[in-house]
Amino acid sequence: MTIEKKAGVARRTFLTTGAAFLGAPAIAQDVNSANTTEVERDLNEVVRRNTSSFRTMSWEPFFDNLKNGAILSDITSRAVHYWGEDGTYKLYPSSVPLTEDLTRRGRTSVVRKVEGPSWRPTPSMLERNPEWPEYIGPGPDNPLGTHALYLSWTYYRIHGTHDTRKIGRRSSNGCIGLYNEHIAELFGLAKVGTQVLLI
Questions:
Q1: Residues 6+ apart with CB under 8 A from 34
Q2: Which residues of 146-173 are buried (b: 16+ CB within 10 A; e: fewer)?
Q3: d(Cα 7, Cα 11) in Å, to the nearest integer?
């Protein structure tokens, strides 16, 4: 291939790539629009997921050490990060609470791990939804999915869900939800005593 032909190919590649990058800000701006962060109550409604800040992060700004591992739930980006003492890093999409009133932020830890959890709605959930059952045992109808990490805060969990439409959305009553295959993996990595931070 002659120098002139190589230059022509390089120029076309640059122009094609450049055009794609020029379109990127418009796409990113649309993803960051108000439509992506509204309170989403109807799971049958088609919504855009908030993926604009779904990216890897470093643990150092958030934790002093990685003893027993560390879990960070980022409510804004709807992502759960896990760092292990051995250098393991995992990133999972999550569901987050419906409203700020239901959202709790701060430091806690895993105090219990349950495979095949049962579920009881909190008193405030039953007040808001009196038609809900008072108990659901393990299985496909259980809102906690296949695994649950119980936190030191009463009623708060990181758990799975059988309703995959919830992931990436504001759809929970306070807990952080993951796909069942992701909570199963995180369940295997986390320990009782793993530090947790919700931001």
A1: none
A2: bbbbbbebebbbbbbbeeeebbbbbbbb
A3: 6
Q: Which of 74, 96, 71 has its CA nearest to residue 82?
A: 71
CB of 178 closer than 8 Å to CB of 80: yes
What is the pLDDT tens value at each position of the chain, 199 positions in all? 544 444 444 444 434 434 333 333 332 323 233 322 233 445 555 555 554 467 899 999 999 999 999 999 999 999 999 999 999 999 999 999 999 999 999 999 999 999 999 999 999 899 989 999 999 999 999 999 999 999 999 999 999 999 999 999 999 989 999 999 999 999 999 999 999 999 9
Structure tokens belonging to residue 111:
């105090």
Encoding tokens for residue 156?
Answer: 């708060």
Catalytic machinery residues: 159, 175
